[in-house]
């Protein structure tokens, strides 16, 4: 529905700003509880980030989702909602709608066919609850009144005692992301913690980028470490730096100037392996030995820039130990990130200290709620952010 009949009475029990994962979840739960709900979405369709996620197959949750998979200034805030709406609860809805899915790796669940099925499921559930959805509709003003909120939009005005802000963060502005939710939070006296791009490729510069010249497209398994956190997965070399799951994950823990280290041989003890190679292949050059464990072009580059390649028999034990130490603790000097343009999530956001962890309601303004990415709760890569959207949306929807 696009609001063409906006002249009708526009009085609701709850208005949800944002037709993404969290907003739709909140709306369908509240609608099916008998609440009259309006969802306002400024884009021309709802669920755009759902549609693009997982390469079009939507990594809709993670079976292992728990509070430890989330970053927040208050790591306890997400516990209540996540405990009350588990991955199995969302999977039950998916199965009820007969959407085929599979586990890809590390607990990540994807649709077998298309992410469109998840959006259709959410819309069908909203329809079952009588939820009204208005797309291509922008909010032009929000006022607090004695009886709730008056929302001015490009489709006319609407009033409701409850207002839910589910407008997302700043990531992927080409999909319509904006700072609207943060502006609204500040309007009502809420603190907004500093935001930055999360789950984002890292950029390199100068000689650090030159060291990867010509290697764009090369991928290898690594363990990335930063600030006491580590992730083991693939790293992808790009024209501007590095990406891939391991890098996207660690990017959420990295700030410019922080030390970032890579284990280039995460599945083996590098020193023991090099010693064994020297014993078994004494005539083989180091670059060819490394090429058995690393992409050939990358192994070649390592030997050009860091290790002088010669037959294995010529390396003393101390030299092999030094090479192994470097391979296991390789410094990655990043200069920055690709920013919100390609970031999957936004770190920071509305301060959770001013929100109820059980209902998502503002502690400052009765009837005002914040859910999903706009809140200072950010998940790992792999379906965790969707699970937070479902869980926070469900908590809020049950409170309206």
From TrEMBL:
Pfam families (UniProt xref): HI0933_like, HI0933_like_1st
Gene3D superfamilies: FAD/NAD(P)-binding domain, HI0933 insert domain-like, Translation factors
RsdA/BaiN/AoA(So)-like insert domain residues: 196-345
RsdA/BaiN/AoA(So)-like Rossmann fold-like domain ranges (all copies): 13-398
Alphabetic keyword roster: FAD, Flavoprotein
Keyword Flavoprotein on entry: yes
Protein's recorded name: NAD(P)/FAD-dependent oxidoreductase
SUPFAM superfamilies: FAD/NAD(P)-binding domain (SSF51905), HI0933 insert domain-like (SSF160996)
InterPro entries: BaiN-like, BaiN-like_dom_sf, FAD/NAD-bd_sf, RsdA/BaiN/AoA(So)-like_dom, RsdA/BaiN/AoA(So)_Rossmann
Cofactor(s) needed by this chain: FAD
